Amino acid sequence: MSWRAEILTLFPGMFPGPLGHSLAGRALETGLWSLGTHDLRDHGLGRHRSVDDVPFGGGAGMVLRPDVLDAGIAAMAAGDLPLVVLTPRGRPLGQPDVARFAAGPGLRVICGRFEGMDQRVLDAHAAEEISIGDYVLSGGEPAALVLLDAVVRLLPGVMGSAESGRDESFADGLLEYPHYTRPAEWCGRAVPEVLLSGNHAAIAAWRRAASEAITAARRPDLWALHCRSVTPTLAGAP
Ligand code: SAM
């Protein structure tokens, strides 16, 4: 059985969206993964199929009702898949989470809207609350697309060897080294000499040092973690 994504959303038309193109789109077409969308509005109440209500305690905006969300969750096929809720309050998504999700059978994903979702239904389902970054989107759908894009590309057979994820940023806790291609000189800027040398050991050493230097400069949080686990080289860094 291929990896399965089930999405609960008020905007099913937003899927597959960008996931219908390129790597993820080809993989969807060839059955390496599958996607099901569920319209939360189908479980709305009354003549207007209402899905939200005012927040207890007052305040601006509307909150998605727990009974409506619960009915939507119950209607999602593959009820045994891990349940992820996208929310700015969640744990920040990292590459280890992405690899963990890709190693599993699939995910059920709930996209919030308005001010958010009634907390009780998230607690009742022991949903994993995930954030894609410290900013607020208008809905969970773009966050779900980001999450699924990151996961799907790690599924077996999705990336060819040319696109392999082995050397990428975060794979070993570091940011990736800089890339260069032809021409070797462009607008007076030369490619680092070592990359033209054909000396594979020297190139690997340069790339490692460049990764470390960039990580130390740009991401002190990742760099501190890295230094705790290995002895950095930094020799030859650009
Ligand atoms: N009132 C919420 C708050 O301040 O945390 C923001 C709600 S936001 C306007 C509506 C929905 O967008 C959320 O329920 C969530 O599903 C989604 N969303 C917004 N920002 C997100 C983020 N950084 N990561 C994941 N989901 C996000």
UniProtKB/TrEMBL annotation:
Complex and partners: Homodimer.
Name of the protein in its database record: tRNA (guanine-N(1)-)-methyltransferase
Q: Which InterPro entries match?
A: Alpha/beta_knot_MTases, tRNA_m1G_MeTrfase_C_sf, tRNA_m1G_MeTrfase_TrmD, tRNA_m1G_MTases_N, tRNA_MeTrfase_TRMD/TRM10
Q: Please report which protein family the annotation says this sequence is part of.
A: Belongs to the RNA methyltransferase TrmD family.
GO MF terms, alphabetically ordered: tRNA (guanine(37)-N1)-methyltransferase activity
Q: Kindly list the places in or outside the cell where this protein is found, as annotated in its UniProt entry.
A: Cytoplasm
Q: What does this protein do?
A: Specifically methylates guanosine-37 in various tRNAs.
Give an example GO biological process: tRNA N1-guanine methylation
Signal sequence extent? none
Give GO cellular component annotations, separated by semicolons. Answer: cytosol
Instruction: Identify the residues that bind S-adenosyl-L-methionine.
Output: G112, I132, G133, D134, Y135, V136, L137
What EC number(s) are associated with this protein in UniProt? 2.1.1.228
- Source domain of life is Bacteria
- For whether the record's keyword set contains S-adenosyl-L-methionine, the answer is yes
> Keyword set for this entry?
Cytoplasm, Methyltransferase, S-adenosyl-L-methionine, Transferase, tRNA processing
Catalytic activity line of the entry = guanosine(37) in tRNA + S-adenosyl-L-methionine = N(1)-methylguanosine(37) in tRNA + S-adenosyl-L-homocysteine + H(+)
In this chain the tRNA methyltransferase TRMD/TRM10-type domain maps to 5-223
> HAMAP family this protein is in?
TrmD
